[in-house]
Design goal:
Blueprint lengths: L2 H17 L5 H5 L15 E2 L6 E2 L8 E6 L2 E7 L7 E8 L6 E14 L8 E8 L13 E4 L2 E13 L6 E8 L4 E14 L1 H4 L21
Length: about 220
Amino acid sequence: MSIRSRLLTCAALLAACHATAPASRAQDDATPKLPFVSNNGFDVWQPTANGDWPVDWSRGQGISWHREEGRAFLRLTQTEPGKLVMVYRDFAIPDDVKAFRFDTIARAANIVSGEKAWFDARIILQFLGDNKAKVKGSPSPVVIARKGTTDWKEVSKKFAVPEGATRIECMICLFQVEAGSMDVDLFNLEPISLEELNPPPPPPPAPVTPAAPPPADS
């Protein structure tokens, strides 16, 4: 299933959850499991005093929500050169979760990087332990653009949960860029098995049997 297909399925599940409530425990047990990151495609919104806004996502300076050609997405816009523009969420990691798959669909426009090489448009996933102390073993950041403009692109990565990690914090950032914007259409974090993280190698190819020589002339 493609990233886009999973996105539409997750959005439908979340919309159904907001629209109805289970009448019994048996009915609740039959409800499909919701995504680890609720409203991961920004498709479920509600009216507010300041206009429509996607459920479970916070507002902030330089952050807006848009709909365009069937997509719903958050936009981060640099309004003050060199400042951090960030959307933040963090999640407790269940004891039985040993690995994650992260998927995003994002684009950037007119990015002017900051004074450091890593001052760009990126997504950071950071593992935390007790007292929210950082734990070694976090995946490398997902860089959407270091400079300039990019079209929509899909990015996926898989990574293990390091020993001692109890939470994962997720940061969509314009990391101190001078100018530009970033749009994020999907932010999906999905628990996976260690087998999916490290699939066995494919079997070796079957040996090639040489063709029999042609019969000798009589």
